[in-house]
Amino acid sequence: MHRKINSYFAFLPLLFILSCGRNANYETGNVFRYNEMGDITSLDPAEARNFENLWVDNQLYNGLIQTGDSFSIKPCIAKKWEISADGLTYTFHLRNDVFFQDNEVFPNGKGRKVTAHDFVFTFNRLLDPRVSDATSLLEKANDFNAPNDSTFVIHLKTPFAPFLHILLMKYFSVVPEEAVKKYGMDFGENPVGTGPFRLIKWEHGNAMVLKRNPNYFEKDAAGNRLPYLNGVIISFLKDEETSFLEFMDGKFDMVSGINAINPRVAFTPDGQLRKEFADKVYIQRTPFIKTDYLGFILDSKNSNSALANPLVREAINYAINREEIVRYLRYNTGIPAENGFIPQLLPGHGKIAGYCYNPDKALDLLKQAGYPNGKGLSYISLFVSAQDYQLAEALQAQLQNVGIRLKVETEQPAILAEGVANGQCYFFKKSWIGDYPDGENFLSLFYSKSFSPGGINYTHYANASFDSLYAHAICETNDSARAAEYTQMDRMIVDAAPIVPLYYDEVIRLVNKRVSGLPLDPLNSLDLRYVRKIEPKQ
Length: 538
Description:
Radius of gyration: 25 Å
Helix content: 25-40%
Shape: globular
Number of strands: 19
Strand content: 15-25%
Largest sheet: 5 strands, antiparallel
CATH class of the largest domain: Alpha Beta
CATH superfamily of the largest domain: Dipeptide-binding Protein, Domain 3
């Protein structure tokens, strides 16, 4: 209780900033508020590697293109583009009415017009691994150039069909060279973008304030300049229960994610919103391009020798009741992952039969592997983070039913990630969130040239046929043909069982009924441009 009171009163000075602002509309409210339990580490889009950073970056920056409905690609700063017949040249034609936000780095503090040369600077900056994790995403690029102020050209070394989808990522948001040079390593604390909001105040661990950018270039269908909101306030309460109570008390406009929602309080056992809350809030949910899974490190020197046997890995897959996990541990949030690794909505998903709950099949496979009823099979350690401990206990009980004894090892997330990358956690729980909406992003985890720790192939799965098909698929420009190849590769992964797909996640939010126009998409992005809010009567 003391934590709640202290955090709230520390939040008051930033509310005072709003009430004393010069903009009359800003004073009257119309401010969207949410709580961030994670840590925002930087507001430099070059470091847009986590949702905490991404959600704010989305309010501050724009890129060449943006996501439309059903993963379509819409213009943003680029009003149109062409891709050469050989798939090697991407030419973007820019709008001429996009300006950087007002900042002291510009003459008289007035934001200047964005040109194609700004994109050349932005993309070249991302090639430095000291600046960004996005470097590997541009490894297929040959060069970037601006033949004039309104034309930006990218040349690739080899065709890469998902490249346009990669450019949707916030890494590729345009930034001004003047600001990067002035602020240097502190640019992430002093962001300058083109987005609908700009940073006014950031008190680390306390709150962040964004204010409407009056010069934002986008308008709605009626010609009204976006955004509708006057501002955004983000708080940083770390306690899930306190955050949820503040939301139910009307102090926050949204809570997102099954852990933040407190499903025991908000939901019925089958995952529906309880009737007593229906007059105050509404629920949003949509498939999330995210798969939660268990992984085996196939070539680890520390591995349990039994796990090198694919029959044992298949037995583990059949012994797990995914439907029970989704229903009872996640309040029906998510879908059992019984169709391979590629999640819902992406090309290649749903065309194969994966693993479903079949304990008899699991026992038969164990017998074939030389471990009848698990006899002779030593304890298997499963490495998980603290937030997955309850899940691990459920898995432990399910595997015990077929004679597989599991020992749960709990680690801090950073330590677990390092252990998995370095091959020290030979059986682990992990999830993969799609950085961009293409099945290639998920299949890249099994490409042999991407072995961890240098890459993202954490299982060290290696298959020459898979590699060959992967290399061909990423150059295939026919969408249907590429999707068919994705399905083939997913089938290979299921057959080899280097992983145990658990569930395809869902984006789930509770939103205050005073808020309208908040979109929801499978990338779990936060878009506040079209949000409207009815402020409570004082």
